[in-house]
Amino acid sequence: MTDVETLVELLGKKEKLVAMVAPSFVVMYDYPDIVTKLRTLGFDKVIEVAAGAKKTNEAVVELLKANPTGRYITSPCASFVRFIRTRFPQYEKYLAYQADSPMIATAKLAHTAYPDHELVFIGPCIVKKKEASEDHPEQNILVITYRELEQVYQKLNIVDPPKNPHDHWDMEEKGTRIYPYDGGLTETSGIRSILKDEEIRIVSSYKQCEAVLKEFDTNKTIRFVDILFCEGGCINGPGIASTLSLADRKKRVDTYATHV
Asked: Which long-range contacts (CB under 8 A, 24 or more apart) does 220-223 make?
């Protein structure tokens, strides 16, 4: 059974479901229309993964403060984590596993707030499926991409649901909404108040991963690498269906973060 079929089945059984929506959603959807549409599908709760991103930030900052000479590479990006494990395992010891990814941090928040609900992560990344099933099976997260969400809409004939301008998230966090583009973690966490610019590297694109690892290896001044595998960050994930340029995608994220 595909993940789309699994979700359709859960919706058909009217199970209590929480939709955990990644902050890159704005590339394809408007707010609060996405919330209303998910409720129309049958989700009981709809929450921002930005809420979990705040927990990720707090854990990363705690790591840096607790270890004044420690060196870390971020681990929210499931694709990059697997790149390290398979291609450069000697660097895995630097991955900041102590900080949950926003998806996992949000799942923990959701389990606490809605203990009788099942969790569905909706985002731009196909590798999040492996993070959920292989790294954190205990969280019992069903992962679907935005492209797959569109398939669910089609299967359930949700074409033009009513709009509700007063709809809102059941759990939200305004401070981390720029998380999905390159540098989002660094710019929302307060890390710049802890580290100097020369101690930070921000990278997006698999093409730059090997080069920054080599620099990290030779330049001991670098203490923190904020890295995402897709060019431009999660706003360019393969689970997104959009013809917008990277600049326009980033602009949509900024507009939502600033004005909602």
From this structure: 220/71, 222/71, 222/198, 223/64, 223/70, 223/71, 223/72, 223/195, 223/199
d(CA 19, CA 32): 14
Tens digits of residue pLDDT in 114-153: 999 999 999 999 999 999 999 999 999 999 999 999 999 9
Q: Is the pTM of this model over 0.85?
A: yes
Helix (H, G, I), strand (E, B) or coil at 260: coil
Q: Say if residues 231 and 205 touch (Cβ distance below 8 Å).
A: yes
At residue 159, what is the residue type?
A: V
25: left (phi over 0), alpha (psi -120 to 50) or beta: alpha
Inform me whether the pLDDT recorded for 166 exceeds 90.
yes
- Give the C-alpha separation, 38 to 18, whole Å: 10
For 228, the enclosing helix (H) or strand (E) is strand 224-228
As a dihedral over the C-alpha atoms of residue 22, residue 115, residue 108, residue 30, rounded to 10 degrees, the angle is 10
- Asked if 142 and 120 count as a contact pair (C-beta separation under 8 A), the reply is yes
Q: Which amino acid is present at 224? A: F
Q: Which residues contact 168 (CB under 8 A, 6 or more apart)?
A: 32, 35
**H/E run at residue 122:** strand 118-123
Q: Give the chain's length.
A: 260
Cβ neighbourhood burial of 74 (10 Å; 0-12, 13-18, 19+): buried
